């Protein structure tokens, strides 16, 4: 990667964020001011103390996260998303919900100011997607240059995802409170975690012969290169061998794969709809879809998933902000995006040193912990796991 390349990537991302900020802020700010004005004033629970220092989104008395923690959490989110092609939105959500205390603050308005409660819910959903969107943008470019992105498959997923990412914000913005959001967030993550656990068992591994062969070839290639040997496949990564309406074929380090375009289009629609509902990127659904249904090795799943997530995020963020007027704290999001940029650059280079099996195990552990923790927190009012 050249210095010029990264400068261009950084400028494009900065222009996109600034343009969105300038176009969307006035309408969203008016909606937030109206919700604050209707909230009881005072120092008690569910009230706004007008004399308190402004915090998140400029709300007096709201949590005001330290900027350095925002950068560090952004690095973690960017790294994990760009490493496994998933879980960035989940980790972004964990940051906003738990680490920075926004969920507990928003839930205090459940009875006193339902409009503000739901406005904070939508803001968290959209903020999560900003972080994942930048990471997906950087990861997509990086993996494509490394020959680890299946372009036709990513285009099919993204094409189906546009409809799902548009419909859900239109239908649900302003209607979901924070307790419901956290509960559904946990259930969906838990289901995915259980499914991925099954995949790591002997029964779940039987149908993964092609994916295993490609993963083994990729790992062998890098071991030989590290030892200074001349390898058979050279710099070859993903190479598309056939484009068609009913079938698309490609090879990855000598192993051939194929898929029917209609299935990733339908899968992209469903995944984008679910991910827009809980305000994440959808990588945690794209990854099992690509590994289990398409049978792809993890090394091409991350890049392909990132491309589908990027298109879905652009659609969903546009709908939340420009059609539903959801306010965003751009100052804090900007700080987190700095960390996302750093983590997203590191991920693709470190992931090739982590075996395929361990990538999945990391994913399963995180999914079960977050899923159980948030399901109990959302529907019981407390988490059975610490730190949630």
Report on this model:
With 388 residues, the protein is mostly helical. It contains 14 helices and three strands. It has helices at residues 3-37, 67-84, 88-99, 102-107, 114-145, 151-172, 178-200, 202-205, 209-226, 262-278, 283-293, 298-323, 330-351, 356-380, and strands at 238-242, 248-252, 255-259. It has a three-stranded antiparallel β-sheet, with helices on one face. A hairpin with a 2-residue loop joins strand 2 (248-252) and strand 3. Helix 2 packs across helix 5 (114-145), helix 5 (114-145) runs antiparallel to helix 12 and helix 6 packs parallel to helix 10 (262-278). The chain is elongated. It starts with a helix and ends in an 8-residue tail after the last helix. The relative contact order is 0.19. The model has no long low-confidence stretch (mean pLDDT 81).
Mean pLDDT, to the nearest integer, reads: 81
Work out the strand percent. Answer: under 5%
Annotation field: number of helices: 14
Point out poorly predicted stretches: none
* Topology, number of strands: 3
Structural class: mainly alpha
Please provide the ordered H/E string of secondary-structure elements: HHHHHHHHHEEEHHHHH
Distance between the termini: 38 Å
What portion of residues is helical? 55-70%
Strand order in the largest sheet: 1-2-3
The backbone outline, from C-alpha atoms, is elongated
- Describe the largest sheet: 3 strands, antiparallel
Radius of gyration equals 21 Å
């Amino acid at each position: 990667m050249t210095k010029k390349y990264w400068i261009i990537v950084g400028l494009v991302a900065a222009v996109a964020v600034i343009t969105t900020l300038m176009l969307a802020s006035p309408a969203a700010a008016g909606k937030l001011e109206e919700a604050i004005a209707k909230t009881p004033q005072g120092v008690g629970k569910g009230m706004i103390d007008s004399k308190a220092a402004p915090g998140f989104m400029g709300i007096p008395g709201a949590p005001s996260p330290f900027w350095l923690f925002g950068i560090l959490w952004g690095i973690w989110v960017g790294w994990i998303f760009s490493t496994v092609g998933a879980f960035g939105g989940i980790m972004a959500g964990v940051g906003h919900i738990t680490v920075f205390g926004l969920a507990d603050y928003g839930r205090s308005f459940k009875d006193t100011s339902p409009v503000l409660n739901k406005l904070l819910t939508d803001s968290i959903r959209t903020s999560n997607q900003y972080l994942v969107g930048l990471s997906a943008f950087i990861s997509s470019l990086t993996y494509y240059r490394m020959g680890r992105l299946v372009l036709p498959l990513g285009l099919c997923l993204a094409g189906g995802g546009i409809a799902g990412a548009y419909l859900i914000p239109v239908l649900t913005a302003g209607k979901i409170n924070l307790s419901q959001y956290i509960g559904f967030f946990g259930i969906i993550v838990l289901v995915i975690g259980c499914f991925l656990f099954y995949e790591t068992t002997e029964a779940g591994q039987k149908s993964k012969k092609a994916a295993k062969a490609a993963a083994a070839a990729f790992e062998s290639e890098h071991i030989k290169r590290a030892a200074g040997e001349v390898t058979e496949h050279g710099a070859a990564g993903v190479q598309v061998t056939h484009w068609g309406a009913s079938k698309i074929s490609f090879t990855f380090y000598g192993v051939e794969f194929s898929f029917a375009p209609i299935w990733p289009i339908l899968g992209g629609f469903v995944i984008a709809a679910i991910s827009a509902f809980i305000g994440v990127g959808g990588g945690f659904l794209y990854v099992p879809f690509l590994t289990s249904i398409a049978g792809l090795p993890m090394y091409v799943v991350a890049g392909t998933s990132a491309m589908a997530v990027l298109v879905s995020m652009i659609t969903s963020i546009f709908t939340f902000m420009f059609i539903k007027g959801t306010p965003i704290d751009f100052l804090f999001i900007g700080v987190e995006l700095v960390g996302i940029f750093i983590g997203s650059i590191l991920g693709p280079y470190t992931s090739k040193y982590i075996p395929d099996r361990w990538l999945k195990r990391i994913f399963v552990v995180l999914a079960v912990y977050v899923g159980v923790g948030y399901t109990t927190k959302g529907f019981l009012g407390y988490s059975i796991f610490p730190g949630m």
